[in-house]
Specification:
Shape: elongated
Distance between the termini: 82 Å
Largest sheet: none
Strand content: under 5%
Radius of gyration: 28 Å
Order of helices and strands: HHHH
Structural class: mainly alpha
């Protein structure tokens, strides 16, 4: 029976500690993003999706198509830059408040690392089929 009492006391202590933690948490100043409260923290700067990033995405996309359909689909750097700039202007016109987050940075970084390798694999496979 003393084991039951100890278990109940331990459970009660754990429960009380949880309530105490919640009480301390509730007593803290409220966090308000970009608010005027004492605990307001600035939001981290978000990566921007601009003409250069769009040009890179287009180069990768056209590069994948070129590896399957032929080199005539590969964009020249100047073409990618022109398309990127034009696309950026259209996005700024129709989506001026477009916010990108760290997800965009992750996707762009992953694309920079993986897609050239994928394209090389596809080119090697095409060369092996021809041989």
């Amino acid at each position: 029976m003393s084991d039951e009492i100890k278990t109940e006391e331990t459970a009660a202590n754990t429960e009380q500690k949880t309530y105490d933690s919640l009480d301390r948490f509730a007593a803290e100043s409220e966090y308000i993003p970009n608010g005027e409260g004492a605990q307001a923290r600035p939001e981290p700067e978000q990566p921007q999706l601009g003409g250069e990033e769009i040009a890179f995405i287009l180069e990768i996309g056209f590069g994948v198509v070129a590896s399957r359909r032929g080199d005539h689909w590969k964009l020249k750097s100047e073409e990618a830059a022109q398309l990127g700039t034009a696309t950026d202007k259209v996005l700024q016109k129709y989506l001026p408040d477009l916010q990108t987050g760290p997800e965009v940075a992750l996707v762009l970084t992953a694309a920079m690392v993986m897609l050239p390798r994928i394209m090389t694999d596809q080119q090697l496979a095409a060369e092996q089929e021809e041989a």
